[in-house]
Design goal:
It contains six helices and six strands. By secondary structure, the chain is an alpha+beta fold. The chain has a six-stranded mixed sheet, with helices on one face. A hairpin with a 2-residue loop joins strand 5 and strand 6. The longest helix is centred in the N-terminal third of the chain and has 15 residues.
Length: about 160
């Protein structure tokens, strides 16, 4: 059963779980709920991501509040635009990263971006990773970013 559930797409997974839990029902979203709207906060996050794709410091920094915090649990906790700016281009990598957003959701003043990133390492090889960035927003700018990143190993042939 576990193998079946984990191979389902996220929406199907949620529906499957809701069918397994007592007292819950599964239903499709109403057509009005399916419409995608781009709020100011989502637009800021999209601009931020495009800035990283282009290694455009000015575009990224324009999305941030002056006292921005960037936390990567277990790795670092930065405060302020100056510290943030130093981490935009990591010295261990070369070129521009390929960033793919899989899901972008918002509730209140929080935007969550789930995606994949691929970047070339200076010493050779490629980083393939999945991420989940939680953006806490204020007045259309990033106030705090918590980044969860996990390297994704490509499966070996035959697996």
């Amino acid at each position: 059963m576990k193998r079946i559930i984990t191979t389902l797409c996220p929406l199907a997974f949620l529906i499957a779980i809701s069918l397994l839990l007592p007292g819950t029902t599964a239903h499709a979203a109403e057509p009005a709920q399916q419409a995608t709207s781009v709020t100011q906060n989502k637009q800021t996050v999209q601009t931020y991501m495009e800035g990283f794709r282009q290694s455009d410091h000015a575009a990224i920094l324009a999305c941030l509040m002056e006292d921005v915090e960037w936390v990567m649990p277990g790795a670092f906790h930065l405060k302020g635009k100056a510290d943030f700016d130093k981490e935009i281009e990591n010295p261990g990598f070369t070129g521009r990263p390929e960033i793919q957003i899989i899901r972008l959701i918002e509730e209140s003043n929080v935007v969550v971006a789930e995606g994949r990133v691929r970047a070339s390492r200076k010493e050779g090889g490629t980083l393939n990773a999945v991420f989940c960035d939680v953006f806490e927003m204020k007045d259309g700018k990033v106030r705090r970013l918590t980044s969860y990143l996990m390297e994704s190993k490509e499966p070996r042939p035959g697996q």
